[in-house]
Amino acid sequence: METTSRVGAQGASLAPGTSTAEGVPVARRTVDGYLRATFPWYGLDEAFTGPRWLMQVGMAADGTVQHGSTGHGEEPSIRVDDGQEKERFAVVVTVASSPVRRSGDGTGVLEATSVSSAAWLAGSGLLSSTWPASLDHTLRDDWLDQQTEAAFELADDLEGSEWSALSLPVDGVPTPFHYRESEFGWVLAGSTQSGVHLGAYGRGMSAYGLGFSVVEDISAYAAQ
Question: pTM (2 decimals)?
Answer without folding.
Answer: 0.80
